[in-house]
Amino acid sequence: MLPSVTRPRLAGLAGLVCLACLIVQTLGAQQPAPAASAKAAVTTGAAAADEWRQFRGSPRLTGVSAATLPATLKLLWTYAAGDVIESSAAIANGVVYIGSGDGDLLALDLATGALRWKYPTGNLIGESSPAVGTDVVYIGDLGGVVHAVNLRDGKPLWTFKTGSEVKSSPVLVNDVVLIGSYDSNLYAIDARTGRQRWKFQTQGNVHATPAVREGVTFITGCDGFFRAIRIADGKEVYQIEIGSYTGASPLIDGDRAYVGTFDNEVVALDLKAHKVRWRFADPDRARWTRPLAKRHGPSPPRRASTRRRSSPMVACTADRTTTTCTCSTRRQAGSSGSSIPARP
Fold it and tell me: Residue 273's CB: how many other CB atoms inside 10 A?
């Protein structure tokens, strides 16, 4: 088990981290957040140019905005959240939603930065970023809980408990919330009731956020595989062996998917041929781990590498056939390890 990692503090700021809002377009009149109905309505319609309703902006995780940047950016406001922010912001209807490290889901006025409401999850929040539906916002926490919260007043609508910490971000597809957990499962949760529709078990932690295209969701994870899973029933359509540990979320562009790995590679995957199309490794950048194909040999098992960031800490050990990676959060010691078969 790995030692816990202490969250760094900035001297003179008493550990406060400010969320800064940079102007990305001319702000018009802001619309109030819509009222919530008894049953939470959801939407999959295209977001307006000035909205960013989920992690990387869209279910394909492209990270592209239709907004036009002004010639000069300027700081509009800051908000002192009281702790580190590793979550990414979602923006909808003139409100910024973001998770703070101390466990609060915050709703801030986009124009002024004023706090509209604060929802305490009861656990820490890591990298999980909010996803905004018609009148509900969803987020996961490091206690393994997925939360559905009323957009209007920040009141809880439902919670769903997974078996381990959640660093994946929720993705809303019609009336289903897709999200991964460190218990090795990808979950499909009913967006209205919070009941489990299905879960798909992988061979390692699901750190990544699932991408979506045409009724199929795509995940990568600590088991070294890229998987295509049918959203309707949770059945695997196909898998492609990447052969490397990855915590990155896939980007879908047409019939290609792209993902980064902890072998310092960018991998392009062909979604029609179901195979790796190409790999790119920057020759000027030293790898923090060796390729899996070179990790096995006559030498006894040894520690390959340890990479420490504010979150998570990743350690890998290798023997002749497998590589095992273990992740831990900054305040939690070692979660489950994941074995990746070595490439022949």
Answer: 10
| Enclosing domain of residue 79 | 18-341
In a domain, residue 1? The reply is: no
Q: What string of pLDDT tens digits covers the 344 residues of the chain?
A: 333 333 433 333 333 334 554 434 434 334 343 344 434 444 444 567 779 999 999 999 999 998 888 899 999 999 999 999 999 999 999 999 999 999 999 999 999 999 999 999 999 999 999 999 999 999 999 999 999 999 999 999 999 999 999 999 999 999 999 999 999 999 999 999 999 999 999 999 999 999 999 999 999 988 999 999 999 999 999 999 998 888 899 999 999 999 999 888 999 999 999 999 999 998 877 555 444 444 333 333 333 333 333 334 444 444 444 445 554 444 443 444 444 444 44
- Kindly calculate the radius of gyration of the chain based on its CA atoms and give it in whole angstroms: 20
Left, alpha or beta for 304 (phi > 0: left; psi -120 to 50: alpha)?
Answer: alpha
Q: What is the DSSP string of 133-158?
A: -SSEEEEE-TTSEEEEEETTT--EEE
Domain count along the chain: 1
Question: E strand or H helix at 251, and its extent?
Answer: strand 251-253
Q: Where residue 94 sits, what CATH number does that domain have? A: 2.130.10.10
Residue 6 covered by a domain: no
Q: Is residue 3 part of a domain?
A: no
Q: Kindly state whether residue 4 falls inside one of the protein's structural domains.
A: no
What's the distance, CA 133 to chain centroid?
Answer: 17
Find, among 109, 93, 95, the residue nearest to 48 by Cα: 93
Per the DSSP assignment, residues forming a β-bridge with 186 are 180, 200
Burial of 322 (0-12, 13-18, 19+ CB in 10 A): middle
Strand partners, 177: 172, 189
